[in-house]
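Dear colleagues,

For the upcoming journal club I promised to circulate an example of a predicted protein-ligand complex. I picked one with nicotinamide-adenine-dinucleotide because it came up in last month's discussion. The inputs are reproduced below in full, followed by the predicted structure.
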Amino acid sequence: MAYIEPAPIKDKGNPFESMMSRFNIAAQHLGLSEQVYNVLKTPSKQVIVSLPVTMDNGSIRVFEGYRIIHSNILGPSKGGVRFDLDVNIDEVKALAAWMTWKCAVVDIPFGGAKGGITCNPREMSAGEMERLTRAYTLAMNGVFGEDRDIPAPDMGTGPREMAWMMDQYSRAQGTTVNSVVTGKPVVLGGSLGREEATGRGVMISAMAAMEKLQINPFNATCAVQGFGNVGSWAARLLQERGTKVLAISDISGAYYNEEGVDISKAIEFRKENGGSLEGFPGAESISSEEILLLDVDVLVPAAVEDVITEDNAKDIKAKLIVEGANGPTSSKADAILNEKGIWSVPDILANAGGVTVSYFEWVQNRLGYKWTKDRVNRRSDRIMKTAFDRVYKTSQKYNTSLRIAAYIVAIDKVSKTYEYRGGY
Ligand code: NAD
């Protein structure tokens, strides 16, 4: 079958290219027709808006904002809004497609989308951020909707911005619509359990993979790169289940203790130290590169993309990689890891606990009801475990890595749904 290859956008670390190279392999396994292939790789809607905002000094600045809906085949589209200087339409397009596969792999009834504004939130006051967020929401009035497209936080945005989005959308509708946005503060209808949801899903994926690899979590060791929301929760929950966390890291450096780092102490230290691990006394400093190459059973990259590359993949000693971050492994590194027999639970599966609990937030808002944290955790654990088992079985059936199997599961679901729904 002749696939039309996408043109490279940048040389290195291009998320669209990296996504498409895996997509292409999975599509070939499935024998996807060229027509359906072309439908699935193309975003269904791309919106670009100009947002004039009055800055605190009285000047007016025009920002560019995007919302890309990759697919609404499975249901309303879902995906975060990123505020960052590097935001550009190609990156947003790739991230939107990623959301489609992530929702499909955990079998939640959402399509994929992503939004962004090119701006530097660190240099903007709260007032400027609020005016920009409200301007963006108003400009997206015909795009967002509880049954159409549901934004969430991403880099540079959080519960505060989601509250403004919910309020602005509700004003335009003349009634409170809290289900239009997820990741809201709990008091506004955010879900209990959302904060730890992604790290918890990483832990569930790691436990499920260890079982298949016959690694006893009580004798296992692990290293976690990135100690933010995802990494610190993953480390804490793995430690609670008996796995020794030998090393953690953040932007300030990496910290190693052969007896195991006390994660509660590290979290406490980070809190009292302005969010940084710098100077953490419970471990010795090692280089940031070294943490990826430690002789541990489980490696959790939970910081940034493209940290496992063709340059360092050959030196990785872990038996299992569980991707808390989005896109931490380059597509060229995949082949090297496969060759060495190292398993990777891919990002679109391992970190899907977050979008799963976002889905629960939407469900609770629509029910007008609040679940307990226990119920949220139990249901998200079940979804993550079921998704892992489905991906594992698929990897055996097609004799592929877990990563390609996850893409096969996702593409199969979206393409079958598309074929049933039909085109014109
Ligand atoms: P965060 O901002 O809370 O934490 C990021 C952490 O990574 C910080 O500790 C930071 O110091 C560290 N870091 C940054 N650059 C680093 C580097 N070069 N080396 C080592 N550490 C570095 O972010 P987060 O929400 O935990 O997200 C982490 C990753 O997980 C991102 O790729 C994100 O897209 C992905 N993710 C997050 C969620 C979620 O629910 N938060 C869901 C899915 C995927």
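Two points we might discuss: The domain at 43-188 is CATH 3.40.50.10860 (Rossmann fold). Confidence is low (pLDDT under 50) at residues 1-11.

See you all on Thursday,
B. R.
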